[in-house]
Amino acid sequence: MNISKVDDGSSAEPALQTPHPDLLKDLFEDAARPTIIKDDQSRFLFINGKACEMFGLEPDEILGRTDDDFLPADEAARVRQADAQVLATGKACLIEEEITAPDGSVRTFQTHKRRSFIPTAEGKKPIVVVVIYDLTDLRHAEQVLRASEEHYRSLIELHPQTPWVADAEGNVIEVGPGWQDASGRDVDEAMGRGWHKTLHPDDLPDVVKTWEAAVGTGALFDMIYRIGTVKGRYRWYRNRAAPKRDGEGRVVRWYGLLEDVHDRQLALKALETSERRLRQHRDELEKVVQVRTAEVREKNIELDRLLQHEREINALQRRFVAMISHEFRTPLAVIDGAAQRLTRTKAAVTPQFLEDKAGQIKGAVARMVELMESILAAGRLEMGTIAINKEASSLSAVLRQCIASRAEISKGHTISHDLAELPELQMIDKAAIERVFSNLLSNAVKYSPAGSNIRVTGWRDGRHVRVSVTDAGIGIDADDLPKLFEPYFRARSATGIAGTGIGLNIVKEIVELHGGSISVESTLGRGTTFTVELPFDECIEKQSA
Known about the structure:
Elements: H1 21-28, E1 35-38, E2 44-47, H2 49-55, H3 73-89, E3 93-100, E4 106-120, E5 123-134, H4 136-158, E6 162-167, E7 172-175, H5 178-183, H6 204-217, E8 221-228, E9 234-245, E10 251-260, H7 262-288, H8 294-344, H9 351-383, E11 391-393, H10 395-409, E12 414-421, E13 426-428, H11 430-446, E14 453-461, E15 464-471, H12 503-513, E16 517-523, E17 527-535, H13 537-544
Parallel strand pairs: 12-14
Antiparallel strand pairs: 1-2, 1-5, 3-4, 4-5, 6-7, 6-10, 8-9, 9-10, 11-13, 14-15, 15-17, 16-17
């Protein structure tokens, strides 16, 4: 349906003398929805202000005309047919239709039509009362939600691991399609406690006991055990699960991942066997050769060191993977929650409601992007592929950008700054330094109560430039300060707060690649101050040149 203005030379009849115009205005001008009154010839007798605003027309451009003056012939005929049916039967009707507005946009309207009567000199005359509901935003939100659900389902189907969901009592209620590959059984057979029958008999008692204990206490579940197919072939799998709690701390769901670690387990067992044989061989050689040369002794020491280093790396990797899995579940839960709220909303969706849900989803996505950027940066640092490209730049401009970005995300905190004492130019890698202070500001917000103030101060001290970030948060235990910049380390005071333990290590490495240093001062329960010191010599020399 295309609603547009008509020229004065249209074929419409002259303006119709509307009976009782004041009565119609009193009854319908302040109606909650756009409202139109038509006579038995489908001519417009009255249109309220909301309808005029919606169509972009003035009353004198509409009154006395018919739908033929505004709509394509087929649409006008359809409208007249609906009007005639309401007038003939007296039965109200509710029609949903798409309308092409004058600006070319397509809008979805739900039109409610009913018959009424108005007194005239010739007696009562039938009229059609038309009330219009604009469903455009609601239908658009439904399309977005369907697309989001299809995207989520595609991710589940393509995930290399097998996601699953259980209720608060530990009964499986949903499992990814990867279950069929793992067990050779239909997905329905895993529901409830049906997955028990796929476990190796030697593993079943411990797995069931550990799972029931986790369900009873709400503790994390993490086990490696064997799952068999209908043909009796078993493979090793790692199964991890974490609870989702409601506002009162009660477990309402369990979310888990089933990972095929068969090849890894075989490799680990082969490694253990190899280590055992290696030690036996070493002991036998020691019995035969009492005095070894310095070279042989050094090789043995180095071998032990490498073995210990490998164990430490494996332990760090397991801890990091578990931590990252938890970190990704939180923003995914936020996105899922917002989507469910949109799904459950039956009434017309307000712009504020959509803005709130979109803000939640945007914040969760930003958190996931931040996690991925930290992981990639940590990998580049470990491989030594991060290059610092310094150029004369405004450090204060970089800091203001970081502050503005964080203030937009964390509106519950106040971030003040004093950067007037910073020099105009500083030899820095802008992107790397932005990562440094974005991380420090993110930590300051994360570990500070809502409504608290975060202070950023910058100044020049001789041939150095210093910038401090101070919060009034939970603080750090004094025993944890020496280890704060180590990879994957998290202070005890941060227990229960989301984090990966790699951000401050990246910050320290970037600052040191700039030839600078970072220090921290903290009092438990009172707040923390991080101070970054960068050399100013390079900038002085460049300006002098």
